[in-house]
Amino acid sequence: MKRSEINRYIAEADAFFAENHFELPPYADWTPQEWKQRGDDADEVRNMHLGWDLTDFASGDFEKIGLTLFTLRNGAPSGGGAKVYAEKIMFVRENQVTPFHYHEQKTEDIINRGGKGTGRLAVQLYNAGEGGKLLDTPVTVSCDGIKRTVDAGTTVYLGPGESITLTPNLSHRFYAVDGHGLIGEVSSVNDDAADNFFKDPLPRFPKIVEDEAPVRLLCNEYAKA
Predict the structure, then answer these.
(1) What is the mean pLDDT of residues 66-87?
(2) Which residues contact 53 (CB under 8 A, 6 or more apart)?
(3) pTM above 0.90, yes or no
(4) Which H helix or E strand runs over 17?
(5) DSSP helix/strand/coil, 93
(6) What is the CATH T-level fold of the domain 3-224, as seen in this structure?
């Protein structure tokens, strides 16, 4: 992805969150220059990869296959920290797909946070077999505390305020319909480096063409500051 695209998409996500009255923490607005001035007081943000996260999954077409996230809190994947949980907020564009993937460790609640102009979230489900193979077996999930068993490949639609619990080895892809999605994630500790398994091998973070200076650093770029 071009840095100019990343700058623009982050600005659009920031505006979308503000429009829907979801306030981000102060470090969401820190520039690369401000990051250079921060000391070890900000190590939790750096080490837990909090902050802006944007990827096109190497698709070359972010608006069709991609995702914008902001990680608000997270614990250490190695354990031993005070936090055993994570939280994210996501800007899911209408019909923008996050490809099939699963986690071996993380359990997550995906929540439609609703808000002005937001749509439904479509979540397609399969049990994951060896190597990420999509299995033709019934899928059992909990939606807002209500247990449901559905056929393999079923798409569950979450309206504003609704949620789904995704357990380990449950392969899923999602996208917004009827408008953009203001989507939350509350989970056990998040480990993007070792606990994302895609049906088709995909990079988690984008390769960036530096056609202009960054306005905001992504959560995997703090070492550059």
Answers:
(1) 93
(2) 68, 69, 70, 71, 88, 205, 218, 219, 220
(3) yes
(4) helix 3-19
(5) coil
(6) Jelly Rolls (2.60.120)
